[in-house]
């Protein structure tokens, strides 16, 4: 009888482990931090055996899924997660919200920098066409930068198109070669190396925005989700974010 009880206990433990390994954590957020989050998810899964699926992009593409099964939501800037919490009250566990890492603004130009853009003042010159993403973590980004150098009017006149999210901005950048520059995050160059070059801003002029993350209120895997966030905050997690252009 004792041997049977031990065997049953062993089977139960094995089954429990198998179930835990199949119970996927679901992470949702915008496209900006997606590559870094996916790399972190892979590393975390290797380390813990807990599978993680990260879905990123415009909120409209994943919201219904997230309402059903999300464990963690991240933002591309602090205001983005705040807006998400205001728009979907009760979905985020506000007490679990933490800041991860910041990313810096820069100017993306065409490879080879054919218009010889070296700073913000060049973006206010005649003949420069600027792409603008008016949302998705970049809301007001160019204006905050331009305001420091009294260039708001000049840069605004050169904006050739404004887009609601980065996915639409990338599509326009690739299709329309007439765009010369895009004030966005330097981190986007890591995903767009074949079609962009980075023009860094002087240290005194740089702006940074954060990357917030929080558990959802309806997560069924709170312990594992907290473990994932702890990994994001670890040295290993930070190294993966640095790889994708974060500070």
UniProtKB/TrEMBL annotation:
<protein>
    <recommendedName>
        <fullName>Extracellular solute-binding protein</fullName>
    </recommendedName>
</protein>
<keyword id="KW-0732">Signal</keyword>
<dbReference type="Pfam" id="PF13531">
    <property type="entry name" value="SBP_bac_11"/>
</dbReference>
<feature type="signal peptide">
    <location>
        <begin position="1"/>
        <end position="20"/>
    </location>
</feature>
